[in-house]
Write a structure and sequence with these properties.
The strands form 4 sheets. A 7-stranded mixed β-sheet has the order 4-12-11-10-7-5-6, sandwiched between helices. A 4-stranded mixed β-sheet has the order 1-2-3-15. Strands 13-14-17-16 form a 4-stranded antiparallel β-sheet. The protein is 40% helix and 18% strand. It starts with 8 loop residues before the first helix and ends with a helix. Helix 3 runs antiparallel to helix 11. By secondary structure, the protein is an alpha/beta fold. Bound molecules: pyridoxal-5'-phosphate. The site of pyridoxal-5'-phosphate has 15 residues, from helix 5.
Length: 413
């Protein structure tokens, strides 16, 4: 086919120049295949969305049955029963039976819904967010994220953000007490910052401050939700924590169609509605897609099946063991994260990480048959979010490719 340049040409050129322009024509389980049939191991999993592997049979069956049923995916009028069932299953899975659900198309949209609900529900205007965070690409979600490489950080009319440091609960306390804060927005594990994590103590302090000052706590679990980090949601790691708002997406539809959701404390939801927000809280065209909800229910069934999470836990400890072995051998530096959201520092030139070492690693690994991505806010970290049903043999191959890629890079410097 003739080269075409209609799609974001600058980005495509950048990918081509950095050796990351591969195209895959087939996916199956934890593998992607190019047009020549070459298999590569997928430890990125569509940025954590491919939770149950590419084309899990149950996900495929759910979509096929839906398509052959003749049921419409979008109706505009009315709310599909299946979306209501999904909302019920989601709050039960998250153990927040008193929360209500709002759906969004993408994670970014769900973040916007969450902050709008908090601004309306509290009638306050400021959002506290955290350095190193990533919440999406729409204008407000982006303003709440740390700037990416282009340094753009344009303010958005109507939202004032206050950025604090991860684990600095005192700073959160100060801004919440002195400001006009509508919500505190955190990721318990920041994938984009190389799996930087809130300590349980820091998390507990922030939750306590939020509760004392009646400031909603929003946890962005778009990356960490639905069993990614070894518990249903990352917030479950802190006993007794019930965030006012939980935002998730990605894993719910296994990377096949977009769907995200906001679980919001019922009284906060009603306050937001009473304060004039009902229309904008309802989400966008695809929020109530019956196809997406049908698929999500099938994915939830897979995740909740008897042995699924037990396997994910064993795979996570095998992966950690592999990485610890590489660290003991001096090939990688820090290893961080939980469950199957793990980040590590490849030491490409010696015993210290270079600023952009993760990019060099990803390029070398791809040429050897492994897809991984750098952490956008910590360019010396590679982030791993493989499918939760990744095999033990695949973890061994990952280890081998990681070792070979680093040794080869060292041999040529
Ligand atoms: C933690 C987090 N929040 C929000 C988003 C945005 O989600 P989406 O890309 O579906 O808009 C992402 C996407 O990577 C994410 O990792």
């Amino acid at each position: 086919m003739e080269p075409i340049d209609s799609l974001h040409p600058r980005w495509l050129r950048l990918l081509a120049e950095s050796g990351l322009a591969s195209e895959f024509t087939r996916g199956s389980g934890s593998h992607l295949y190019d047009a020549q049939g070459r298999a590569v191991l997928d430890f990125c999993g569509g940025y954590g969305a491919v939770s149950v592997g590419h084309f899990h049979p149950k996900a495929v069956t759910a979509i096929a049955e839906f398509l052959s049923s003749g049921r419409p995916a979008l109706t505009a009028i009315g709310v599909p029963q299946v979306s209501q069932v999904l909302a019920h299953r989601a709050v039960a899975y998250a153990c927040v039976p008193d929360h209500v659900v709002l759906f969004g198309g993408t994670g970014s949209e769900a973040i916007e819904i969450a902050i709008r609900a908090c601004i309306a529900g509290t009638r306050r205007g400021e959002i506290v967010c955290v350095h190193g965070g990533f919440h999406g690409v729409t204008q407000a979600a982006r303003e709440l994220s740390s700037p990416l490489f282009d340094g753009a950080d344009e303010p958005i009319a109507g939202i004032k953000t206050i950025r604090v440091h991860i684990n600095d609960a005192k700073q959160v306390e100060h801004v919440v007490q002195t400001g006009n804060v509508a919500a505190v927005l955190i990721e318990i594990i920041q994938a984009s910052a190389g799996a930087a994590e809130w300590t349980l103590q820091g998390l507990g302090c922030v939750a306590a401050v939020c509760q004392r000052t009646q400031t909603p706590l929003i946890v962005d679990e778009i990356m960490t939700g639905f069993a990614r980090t070894g518990s249903p949601f990352a917030f479950h790691r802190l006993d007794g924590l019930v965030p006012d708002v939980i935002v998730s997406g990605k894993a719910l539809t296994a990377g096949l169609v977009p769907l995200a959701l906001v679980m919001i404390r019922r009284d906060l939801y009603y306050k937001a509605c009473d304060n004039g927000m009902p229309q904008t809280l309802l989400g966008s065209t695809f929020s109530l897609s019956a196809l997406a909800a049908t698929l999500a229910l099938a994915v939830l069934d897979v995740i909740c099946a008897d042995t699924f999470c037990a396997h994910a836990a064993q795979a996570a400890s095998a992966l950690l063991q592999s990485l610890e072995g590489l660290a003991d051998g001096g090939l990688i530096g820090d290893v961080r994260g939980k469950g199957l959201l793990i980040a590590f520092q490849p030491l490409m030139t010696g015993d210290q990480p270079d600023a952009w070492s993760a990019y060099d690693f990803c390029k070398g690994a791809l040429s050897r048959g492994l897809v991984v991505t750098p952490a956008p806010h910590a360019a010396d970290f590679v982030v791993l979010t493989p499918p939760l049903n990744i095999g033990f043999e695949e973890i061994e191959i990952f280890e081998q490719i990681t070792r070979d890629s680093i040794l080869e890079a060292r041999a040529t410097t």
